[in-house]
Specification:
16% helix, 4-stranded mixed β-sheet, alpha/beta, 2,3-Dihydroxybiphenyl 1,2-Dioxygenase, domain 1, 35% strand
Amino acid sequence: MDPAPGVWPCLSYLDAPEAVRFLVEAFGFQETLVVPGGDDREVHHAELVWPEGGGVMLGSHVAGDVDEFASRPVGGASLYVVTDDPSRLYSRATGAGAEVVREMHEEDYGSTGFSVRDPEGNIWSFGTYRGTVPGRS
């Protein structure tokens, strides 16, 4: 059995409830926890798991020095997510309105994948490359 994911990218969104909806609909993340903030347009903390392993955390952007995590810039992240079926995911993502940054392509190192931008500017790359992990063949 693989260990529980030990790396959880964290993102800030201007419209975090919409980001949760988009990530679930467009990419297939599964919503596991959403802690609402002070109003309907705010999320204090959310966790979304990736069905093939791992996940992301996100929350609403809060301007100023109120919180060093929530005040980070919005839309500047670039994430890579492993998938066994990039073609199916490409259709799902583009069907949900994700902006294509890089069309489906094959890499020299054997990966097949693509990149899209979410509504707030983060770039999500999906591909079959699982990285180089010591001890794994």
